[in-house]
Amino acid sequence: MSDTPAGTLGDLPDLAADKHGQTAFLCDQPWLGYGGPVLDVAGFAHAVHDYADRFWAAGIRAGDTVVVVQRNHIEVQALACGLNRIGALPVLLSVGIEPEEIVECAGRLEQPYLAVDAAGAARLAGQTAALQGLTKRILFLTEGGNPEAPANEAASAEPSWAAPTGDRQTHRPSPRGEDDWAVITHTSGTTSVPKLAAHSTRSLYGVVRAQIAASRAFGQVGLSAKHLSFVHARTCSIVLAFLEVAMPILAIGDARPEPVRQLMLEHRPDSLETHPNVFIRWEPVAAHPSRPFSSVTRFVSTFDAIHPRTVKALLAGSDQPGANYIQAYGQTETGGVTARLVTRDEAAAYRPRNVGSAIEGSSVLVAGEDGSPVPAGQAGAIFSKTIGRFRGYIGAESPVDEQWWPMGDIGRINPDGSLELLDRLVDHAEGTDSFLEVEDTVLDRLPELIELVMLKEVGGHDVVAVACPREGEAPDPGRLLAALRETSLGAVPVYVMDFDELPLTGSYKVRRLLLRSRLVASGAAPTVGVDA
To answer: Sheet of 461-469: strands edge to edge?
Structure first.
C-alpha cells in the first residue's frame, strides 16, 4: 500500500471526477453557499472550482490563511479543497464553539481572511470589532452563489461588516504540496480553549490508509452515511478517502431523530457513522417499528467512548446477519490509534473501556510517572505513534514523528495486547478507576437518561453528577441515587439539566471543565441531594 495519495486536496477532486465522477456524493440538506445541487463526485469537483474562482476574485492568493466559520455542512470541505487549489490555507472552525474562542483562534494567526455564512455571521455578530482588527478582510459566503442555480428563496441578508463572495474570476491553480500544511482544524477543547492543529494531505492519507486499502481489496461498498462535525480532521480524511476510492457518501446535517429515520428508510445505507452522543439520541430510531437501521451492516464511532446500552440498541436495530459496531480510539493529533469490532453476539458483554488493539501503522505505550513502560495490567499514561500524526500546532513546535505522543488519557494494556481506557488525566478522581465506568453503569440501569457526566469539586462536593433525561421524561430521584450507590463512587449529589444545556464540542463531547466552571459560577444547589 502506497504512503502517497493520488493527489493533494487541491487537485484530488478533479482526479476523482475523471475516474469515478458518477459516484454518489449526497447530502440531506441543500448546499446554500454553492447554491446548486451536488449529487456526485463530479458535482463536488465543480463546486470546488466555483469556490476557487470566488475566493480568487475576493483577492485570496497562495500563502494566504482563511478562517472559515459556517453551519455544520459537508459543503465546508469543498471550500477547503477550493482554497487548497489556489494555494491558500483553510482554518476550519466549528460554529458551535464559543464566539470568544473563535476570536482567540483568529488572533493566533497572522492577519487571516475570515469567511462566514449566515450561521457564522449570527454567531459572531457581537465580535465584529475585535475580528476586524485581527483579520485582513471578512467575507460573506453569499447564499445561492452558483449563477447556474435557481435563486435561493431562503437566502439571508448579507451582514454590513462582511464583503460578499458572489463575483468570480478564473483562478490560477497552485495546489499546496502533499507535505505542506493543507488544512488546520481545532481540537475538541474538552480541557481548555481549542488548539489549532494542522494536517497535510499525506498525514490525512495516513489516517485512512487502511480504509482505502480495504476498499481496494474487497471492491465496491454500499452507501456510507455520516453525521459528523464536518470541520473535524476526521471528515477531512474521510473526504480524501472517498475521492481516492469510489466510495458513495451520504452526509447528514440534520441529526434530529425523525428526519434521520426517514432518511435511513429512503437511502438504506450500508454503514452509519456519527458521534457517540448522537448515537445515544438515535436509540429510539433503532427501536422504531419501521426498522430504519435494518440495512446497516456497520456502525462506526471514533470520537469518544460509547455507552454499552447504545451499542446493543444499534445492533438490535439491524437486520444484517454480520452487523457490527466499530469503536476506534484516537484524536485530531494522531488519527486512529486502536480499533475494536463488536458483533451482535458480543454486544451483551461489551465494555467500552476496552478500545481494541493498535491498527496498522500505529503503536501504543502505557507508561508510569517516570516515562518507562509499565507491565500489562498496570495503569499509566497512554502514548502513541501513528502514520496519521498531525503536522503541528499554531504557535508551537512541530511534533517529531519518532517520539511517543501523549494522549492525555489513563489506561492499561491487557494481557491480550488490547488497550483499556480508564479516564482522562484531567478528570481522574481518587476512589474510582474510571469516571467513565461509573457513567456507563448508571446509564445502563437508567434508560430514561441520555447522558450522565461526573465532575469533580462542585459546590463543596468532591464529586457530583449531571444527569440529562430524554425529552419529556424526568428521572426519579430514588432510582438515580440507587444506581449511583452501586458504583465505586457511591451516591453523589446530582444536577438534572436538559442535554441542550450542556456545553459541547463540535463533535458533541461534553466540555467538562466548562460545565464545571458554569455550575460553580452559578452557585446553584444540586437538583437531587444525598440522604444522610
So the answer is: 449-458, 461-469, 494-496
